[in-house]
Every structure is written in C-alpha cells, then in structure tokens.
Amino acid sequence: MDDAESYADPDGYFDEPIAEKYDESSAGMFASDVVDPAVDVLAGLADGGRALELAIGTGRIALPLARRGVAVHGVDMSRAMVNRLRAKPGGDAIGVTIGDFATTKVDGTFSVAYLVFNTIMNLTSQAEQVACFRNVADHLEPGGTFVVEVGVPDLRRLPPGQNVRPFHTSATKWSFDVYDVATQAMSSNYVEVVDGRGSFWSVPFRYVWPAELDLMAQLAGLRLRDRWDGWTRNPFTSESEQHVSVWEKC
Ligand SMILES: C[S@@+](CC[C@H](N)C(=O)[O-])C[C@H]1O[C@@H](n2cnc3c(N)ncnc32)[C@H](O)[C@@H]1O
Fold this sequence. Notes:
Elements: H1 3-8, H2 16-25, H3 32-46, E1 50-54, H4 62-67, E2 71-76, H5 79-86, E3 95-98, E4 110-115, H6 126-139, E5 140-151, E6 164-169, E7 173-180, E8 185-194, E9 197-206, H7 210-219, E10 222-228, E11 242-249
Parallel strand pairs: 1-2, 1-4, 2-3, 4-5
Antiparallel strand pairs: 5-11, 6-7, 7-8, 8-9, 10-11
Helix pairs in contact: 2-5, 6-7
Bound molecules: S-adenosylmethionine.
Residues 12, 14, 55-57, 60-61, 75-78, 81, 100-102, 116-117, 119, 122-123 line the site of S-adenosylmethionine.
C-alpha cells in the first residue's frame, strides 16, 4: 500500500491487517515489566480523577489502568484497533471517541492525559503536534498533567551523509528508519517475507526534540514538571534514548 492509499484509509496506518497482528507484533510492549511501571505513574497522576489516553489503540495501557480503578476515556482514529480493545475483558467499559487526537474534543475534563509508545511522532507536522498540546490543555483540569513517552531522535547513530538506520535484520525481516534532517520527517519501514511472499509496510513520522516539546507545552499553557529516562523515573541524561515527560497545566 503506498502512502496516498493508506492515508485515505479512515483507520490511518493502523488498518485491519495491522490491527489484527498488533498485540502479537508488539508483544514485548505488553510485558508486565513494561506496562506496570507506566500504569503506576499514570494511576498516581490520575490521583482519583479521570484519565484521557490519546491513541488508545488496543488498550495496552488503558485496560490495566482501568483495572486499577481509574476512569479512562480514549481517542483513536482506527476503528480496527478500537474493535480489538472492545473485544477484550473490560474493553466495553472504556469510552472511546473515534477521531484525530490532535483535534478531537471529548466531554469533561481530566486529571491526566497521556500519549505513549512514540505516538506523538505519528503527527507528521509541527503544527499538528502543537495542536495536540493545545487540545490536551483544553481537556485538563487546573494542575492536571500531560504525559508523553517518546524516543530521543536517534541522529547520533547516523554517520555524515547517511539517512537510513536499520533496527532489525533477520533472515526474513528487515526494518529500518529513514530520516530527513532538513524537515524532521522520518519513516519506519518493514519488509517481511512469509511463505516466499514479500510485504512492505511504511509509516511516516515527525521526530521531535525534548526542548521542542517543552516549547509546544509552553504555547499551550503547560510547564514541565518532570522528565525521566523511562517509567521507573530514572533521571533523563544526555545518554537517554527515550523520555517520559510530564507537563502540568499552569
Ligand atoms: C503504536 S499504536 C499505540 C497504541 C497504544 N497507545 C499502545 O501503547 O499500545 C498507535 C495508535 O495511534 C493511533 N493513531 C495514530 N495517529 C493518530 C491520530 N492522528 N489520531 C488518532 N489516532 C492516531 C493508531 O490508530 C494506533 O492505534
């Protein structure tokens, strides 16, 4: 499927064939040592209030958070992904609004909003990422928090002149990121051979720097409260490969 075709799909890049395999292909991200620390942080920030998950997907974080007694509402553009959430135990108790999380409005306000697993980068322009922060700010109670989990752009791994970084190679599967440092556009690309037949999946992203996110937060009336290396709250350093950032509504 080329970019134009997949963009035209109302489910975006997470259409039926991708949704069908999502939990299996992201199995490592469903492990309890990955999920539990995230749920601990988010339940603490919810502090008895409501939580809004942007890009709720199949409920990897929302379901265990709801099991902790937090009222969770989600937004996602992919009906195929949300159908998987609905089919899981407890999934039908979670409200979901279908739409673009940069602009979609939902009823009520929230103690915490969160956007995990690098999904801020699925917004492929700076304007959309800024809109997302403003949209979240509109949904937060005073003192409420917005949490983003995203990788630090991997540019230090690119030798001069190179714009491709492989991140998985095996006998039947090759995955690589392609960077355009002029525009901050990137894509993750997956080539796989199954039963002698090749398939190709490519998802466009816009990589974004921590300081740039802080400026987006500032534009939206939020200020940085914490930035960690991950959900276990280790300090963020110059060697960190990802960050979990928490901004609060001023
Ligand atoms: C990598 S999955 C993450 C799902 C879930 N948060 C998790 O951690 O497993 C990305 C999700 O973002 C959704 N998505 C991507 N761009 C979106 C947008 N602009 N508006 C709404 N949903 C979007 C996709 O449909 C998909 O469900």
